[in-house]
Amino acid sequence: MKRFFIRLGILALLVIICDFAIGFIGGKLVENAKGGDTKRKYSIANNTNEEFLIFGSSRAIHHYDAEILEDTIGMSVHNCGFQGNGIICAYGFYKMITERYYPKVMVYEITPSFDYLVGDNHKYLGELHYFYKGGVIL
Prior knowledge:
The chain is mainly α.
């Protein structure tokens, strides 16, 4: 019986070590992403410092051109919209951004299917899972 518990302890230790190693490697892969949504999420959460931010779902991505807005209003602009996400995801990114600085202007493109209708809004939090560290979104 003693041998069983020793093996069980070793297995638990190996699982914990593997978990930390995979988490560390995954974090480094996210930080060094070369493109796509992963790089976009990491950039918004950790690097964006523009004065004017646009949040929302696909409508925000496709209907607001940051370059045109920059020329028109004379402020730096960043489009932080994500395909198929609502205000819950935008709020998570807002919290991460305001840990670093406060933008002068923020626009949120309201999409009724993501923001008004009753449903499981927690599914939109999946975009933030890269940034979840020990109970706190960083």
